[in-house]
């Protein structure tokens, strides 16, 4: 009887190792890339895709991302605003969670110079 509750070492090693196959769209992949990377031919299998969200602090922009159909503001990027540079993480997270999506028509005035400001507006365009 096998009392093992985890994968065998060989199976775990196989899951942890990524298999690199040549791109399916060779017509649009640069030839130097096809030659430079170590590709392996496989007939079938499971592929791990390494996807990471990256945001650059210091580009004078507040980044947004979509999650489950909802648009969110990146809390750390609120530090692009001079008055929030020294704010702590908890405050930034609370502020980022307070943003609400509002749709505007083309040509509609969002804010005018000289008007009093009651809320912070981050414009996200597609």
TrEMBL record:
Residues of the Cyclic nucleotide-binding domain: 83-123
Domain of life: Bacteria
Cross-referenced InterPro entries: cNMP-bd_dom, cNMP-bd_dom_sf, RmlC-like_jellyroll
Lineage, opening ranks: Bacteria, Bacillati, Actinomycetota, Actinomycetes, Kitasatosporales
Protein name: Cyclic nucleotide-binding domain protein
Native organism: Streptomyces rimofaciens
